[in-house]
Amino acid sequence: MTNRCILQMALLLCFCTVALSRNYNLLRSQLRSSNSACQNLLRQLNGTYCREDRMNFEVPEEIEQPQQLQKEDAVLVIYEMLRQTLGIFRRNFASTGWNETIVERLRAEVHLQMDRLETNVDEITEKENFTWENTPVPHVRKYYARIVQYLKAKKYSRCAWTTVQAEILRNFSFLTGLLDYLQN
Amino acid sequence: MLLSQNALAIRPLNLYPVVFISLTFGILHALSDSPDESCISFNMTLRNFQSILSWELKNRSIVPTHYTLSYTVMSKPAGETVVEDCINITRSFCDLTDVWESMSETYLLTVVGFRGNTVLVSCWDKVFVALDMSLEPPEFEIVGFISHIDVIVKFPPVIPKMLVGKNLQTYLSLVIEEKSGSIVNLHRPKIDGNTTGNFTYVIDKLIPNTNYCVSVYFEPKNLGKIHRSPLKCTRLQPGQESESSESVKIGGIITLFLIAAVFISTIITLKRIGYICLRHDYPKVLNFYNLSAWVFPELPPLEAVAIVEVIHINRKKKVWDYEYGDESDSDNEAVPRASAGGYTMHGLTGLCPLASTSSASLENCGNPDAEEPDLPEPGVESEPLMTPGPGPCQSECTDGDYERRGNRLQDRFSEEDNSSTEGSEDRIVFNVDLNSVFVRVQDDDDAEVPPMLSCLPEEAVDLEDPNEMETSLLVASGEGTQPPFPNPSVECLWPEDAPSDESDTSESDVDIGDGYITR
């Protein structure tokens, strides 16, 4: 009886591992495609860059050069970046003259990526020893808080928005690198 | 003179910085004059792993003689940086391979066009490298073998800063496209930041003596246009004989295996459905080991067969007195009786009359008209019994005088009840199957027990069953007709003198003591 239970557990573990690996491979492929779509949409938002309003938002190391990042941390960082990006583009960008449809499509694409990550994020955060403090997510939140603070300080001006647009475009490029951590 | 010589010696040394500074101030001056963003278009290309930036002025009427390129980034408030290799260049492109370091940066590029010392145009635009860089295919070579092709992709000995490390595999997805006729296969070899020099990828499992074409390209991240390399084709060498013979061997083994599988499955199927029966212990008749015995088989011993002789004894049957008038009242009285010879006549008292009242039984007996020729005429009672064929059982059933004959039968049983040695009134009905052939070995013992056969049913007569009714009525008809010589051919009313082997030899068959007959 004990042997049968051990065998069943082993088989279950194997199946779960295979299913999870396939899940991550598929997830990575989907996110790559969606990420490229987001970058293209962001590029379509026309606007003249203002050199005088450039700002160094100090991208966290976990985003720009993720050398020692675990797969679970990468999932959390990607999800947090998408969530913060969605929050930024829900703010007032009336001064930019951007096409509302393009912005809406951008938000939808970001939301789609978040939905795809939802299950994986739940699996990670529902672990017993999980605490947000042990993840790079707080740094990411501070980084995006600086961006929002900048927009507020500049009163959502056109130049401020173009600076943020360039920064978000840069973040999507970092996301491309982060997605590589989702492979098996 | 000396002063002039010193001046000539110093002049080249100090001239370059002066020119550089003046150009820088000139560019800054031009930028301060707010360069036009829409007057130029940039094109970023990765060609042989080199980042080449080219530009084209939108206003073609302005033709500068030389250009100066500078850039800055959007991610921080940094100053303008002049590209040293792109100062006062006469060409409209610049190699930025060793200048730019990030693929994720948005660069603000400024080109100042000069004619002589005069600034003709100052234009700027932004370039996001990860999306705007066009990926041209790398150089490669192919080497064809019998069943595989080696694709050798030429990477630079030193990877550019922009692609060093993880960026090479993140931003460059190498794809090798293999074509054979209309079949196209894509191969995606994994490359990393340490991939330098010749990178060899093997396309295996190909068909010998077939033409294959290979193309290589980098898959763009921005879903943009794919720049494929020109096809390089090769025809694989024909396969060697050893390989063909090996394939033939494998094919032969597979064929043999299939044949064996089919044979075994056929045998199993035939055995299961019963067409063949494989046994290990053969019966003796199939034992051919003893050949002599098989050739000269032993004759079976003669068996002593008792001679059975059928003796027709014409014995005058006991004649009963039929008095219809008086004894017709006892209709429901079923009395077992024994015949004079010791055989028990089954008491059918009350059965036939009851059956006669059942219209269903009469209907089931068939068409009376069709049976009419076989029916015994009431007036001529002995003739039907003498004729072979359908017995009186059937004819009786269809007879219109069925009821009357039933009454006769009852009367007769009532009479015989008086003469029966076994008769007792508490045993009214018992069933004996006398529908059997009684064969008697020639013996004199049966003289006292004459076989008297009747077609009385073994079981109680079912009033609803016309067949049993017929059998019962046969007796009635036979008795009623009072045949002078019971005909053995009559199947229901067996002749009294019919020899019965069983009835005589077996005492257990006939138990006259208590009135039951046990067989």
UniProtKB/TrEMBL annotation, chain A:
Name of protein: Interferon beta
UniProt keyword terms in alphabetical order: Antiviral defense, Cytokine, Disulfide bond, Secreted, Signal
Pfam families the record matches: Interferon
Keyword flag Transcription: no
Signal sequence, start to end: 1-21
Species this protein is from: Ceratotherium simum simum
Family in the record: Belongs to the alpha/beta interferon family.
Keyword Methyltransferase: no
Location(s) in or outside the cell: Secreted
Database matches in InterPro entries: 4_helix_cytokine-like_core, Interferon_alpha/beta/delta
Gene3D superfamilies found in the cross-reference section: 1.20.1250.10
Automatic annotation (TrEMBL), chain B:
Interferon/interleukin receptor domain mapped to chain residues: 134-236
Gene: LOC101396197
Span of domain Fibronectin type-III: 41-118
Keywords linked to the UniProt accession: Receptor
Matches recorded under InterPro entries: FN3_dom (IPR003961), FN3_sf (IPR036116), Ig-like_fold (IPR013783), Interferon/interleukin_rcp_dom (IPR015373), Type-II_Cytokine-TF_Rcpt (IPR050650)
Stretches with biased composition (Acidic residues): 498-512
Taxonomic path: Eukaryota, Metazoa, Chordata, Craniata, Vertebrata
Residue span of region Disordered: 362-404, 477-519
Protein name, as recorded: Interferon alpha/beta receptor 2
Highest taxon of the lineage: Eukaryota
